[in-house]
Amino acid sequence: MSGKGEETAVVGEGRQYVTFLLGEEEYGIDILKVQEIIGITPITTVPYLPDFIKGVINLRGVVVPVLDLRLRFRSGEASYNERTCVIIIRVGERTFGAVVDAVTEVLEIPGNMIDPSPDFGSKVRTDFIEGMGKLDDRLIVLLDVERLLSEEEMKGLESIPGDEPARDGDAKEPTTAA
Fold it and tell me: What pLDDT, on a 0 to 100 scale, did the predictor assign at position 1?
């Protein structure tokens, strides 16, 4: 966390988080940023995207870009299974999906149980970590989804068709990204 005001926001009142797994690690996203959670669905690949952006899905007629958080965090690629799901996230006017290994639960984490993100030095990007939630023997990495993608990456998402109705020609059989 860079500013004192940001730290105050983290250690204030408790908030609810949707928690999920990537491998053995547990993460959380503020429930107010989560639009919905869906099972893994066929993802249509789009050429020339960064590896962690898997492509797009047709969500009830709206084209939504999808990124794989394992690949985003350089945790290696995993096989998708019956527990794999997509968390649909809303940031401002932009909606995108995040593939996770499994959603675990919705938790309320008291403000006094959230520590600021650790400082790993200037060469390690941690601005997308809102804080570290501590519950019993669990440590949950709380993500700031507004900073999950850099400004440059967010601009790249802008070039992907999204938040717009799918055209009739887009209704072709999607290909599943592996």
Answer: 40
d(CA 56, CA 130): 27
Q: DSSP string spanning 16-79? A: EEEEEEETTEEEEEEGGGEEEEEE----B--TT--TTEEEEEEETTEEEEEEEHHHHTT-----
Number of domains present in the structure of the chain: 1
Residue 38 lies in a domain: yes
Cα 130 off chain centre by = 13
Mean pLDDT for the chain overall: 80
For residue 125, what pLDDT is reported? 62
CATH of the domain at 132: 2.40.50.180
Query: Could you tell me if residue 39 is inside a domain?
Result: yes
User: Distance between CA 59 and CA 71 in Å, rounded?
Assistant: 22
Q: Domain span at residue 132?
A: 4-171
User: What integer pLDDT is reported at residue 73 of this predicted model?
Assistant: 85
Residue 121 in any domain: the answer is yes
83 phi and psi, to 5 degrees? -90, -15
Residue 177 within any structural domain of the chain: no
Which pLDDT tens digit goes with each residue over 36-74? 999 999 999 988 888 899 999 999 999 999 999 999 888
